[in-house]
Structures are given as C-alpha cells and as structure tokens.
Amino acid sequence: MMHLTLYWGKNVTLLVDSWKTDSWLSYLLTLLSCFLFSSFYQYMEDRRLRFRSLSSSSTTAVSLLPKYQRSAKIATAVLFGVNSAIGYLLMLALMSFNGGVFLAVVSGLVVGYLFFRLIDDEEPWVVIDNACACA
C-alpha cells in the first residue's frame, strides 16, 4: 500500500519492490543506508564543485594544462550526472513518506554538509551553493 501522508513505522518499501523492511533490524539498516547515501551525496557535491573550480580557474598556481581543459570539463559533466542521479534517488526515497527515512536523509545531508563542505572551507571557492538535494 502506498502512503500519501507521512507515517511512522518499520514497514517500508524503498525505491524497488525487493527492498522491503519487515523487521526492526532491516528498518534500521535501511535508515543507516539512507543516512550514508545522503552523506555521500554531499561528499560528491564537494568533489564536483572543487573540480569545477580547479578546472575553470586560470589564475591559480595549480591550473590545468590547456590540453586537459576539455577532459576536465567532461569529467565535471560526468560528476554532475552522477550527483544528479544520487539526488533524484534520495528524492524518490523520501517519496516513501516514511518519517524515519525522511529524518535519516535530512540528517545525512546535514552531517555530510558539515563534514565535507563546511569545515574545510578556508577559501571562498564555492561557485554554486544550492540546498536542493537534486540540483
């Protein structure tokens, strides 16, 4: 049965029909995977933005050679695609309307942002800072 309102409980179907939880252990492992996956999203977003900044910068001492500029742009586009796919999968997981999944994803995004994007922010290199997990 598909829920259309936020509910609390251990019975969740997440992303595919074969990913169903029927015990507290499987539910907690699902929440842990949602938490880790959303933290990984923040890590990948950090890597993508740093790589984009590095590949587009012409004034830094670590600038790329001109013959690698095209490869850097392709790699940035691939990272954007991977990150978008992760963001949309997180959005689909939230569409299960389970309160635990919602809290796991949001707390994973917060912890990932804290560890990967906020603490090591010594210089203002961030070009785009978007709070949406799917952009």
Automatic annotation (TrEMBL):
GO terms for cellular component: plasma membrane. Its main location: membrane. The chain crosses the membrane at residues 24-44, 74-95, 101-119. It is a multi-pass membrane protein. InterPro entries: Cop_transporter. It comes from the Eukaryota. Belongs to the copper transporter (Ctr) (TC 1.A.56) family. SLC31A subfamily. This is Copper transport protein. It comes from Gossypium hirsutum. The gene is LOC107943929.
